[in-house]
Please model this.
Amino acid sequence: MSTAMQRPPAVQPISRYFEKPPQSVLIVNKMRTPPVILAINALLEHIHTAYPGVRVFHEDRPDIPHGAEVWHPSKHQIDLVVTLGGDGTILHASSLFSSGAVPPVLSFSMGTLGFLLPFHIDDFARALESVFHGKATILNRMRLAATFFNQNLAKKKNDNNDWQVMNEIALHRGSSPHLNTIDIYVDGQHLTEAVSDGLIVSTPTGSTAYSLSAGGPIVHPSLSALVLTPICPRSLSFRPLVFPSSSSITLRIGDRSRAPAGVSMDGRTSHVLQPGESVTVQASPYPVPCINRSSISDDELHQKEKEGAGPGKEDDWVRDINNLLQYNATFRSKALLRHSRT
Model:
């Protein structure tokens, strides 16, 4: 099997991004509930007051907030993306730039816990200050590029651009009662014939999403790697594999497969692959530059609290796997511990 995509250039995982203050901001938000409306209004007022001259854009939706311009991708260049919502909002922001480079993403939580939410909305003023004063540090979160081919190994005509996804590309049997039979090729070499409910190819960012639920490993997001995870394989010896980001993985629906494979990308249904058709997945040259929580510096706070890492050094990922996954937590709950006699 061959691939039509070139090897992506090496990406510096953590760096500083802004050489000059942003001149244009795109706001991406989940549904406009009352808390989201209040947050957007406060954010817009702050930007217009503290950073006059900065243009603020929003998707062309019926609920576009007052004070924001309608964003036309072909006309307006964006220097900074601000998201308000959960992890799904950031995945949506990534999909808005599915065919090219993504501007730096500053993500705010609206009370939702998530691996991609370094800032709480209450900290928006300090977070924006770190960006506009060039103090923000960036974690380049890898994306995947996918190209689809027909039975003759020709690129499918309906796909004018390679798809770019942030979490994972999943092949699954959908509503069929039969297992998928999928041939896996790595850099053109046949790896195995997989008989299973499906396969997941994920990024390190996506390793804590669908792949983790299917038994895949947790991979630090600063690494460049592709994670291949089977979904309910027939063979118990079929275990997840981690490949370098330079690898090209081709998944071809076997000619003997009794079911087509549905393809979902970051939770969005995109294709159905028939026997003989395939998808080639490799690292995208366009990662998602995510602004770290450790970009916020508060000298007075760190003078009072000597414990912990200083600004720019704290690893958000370590905090997340402990707080969100309760990594290696005891099975005994706190309630049981309070009433324990031992």
In short: The longest strand covers residues 189-202.
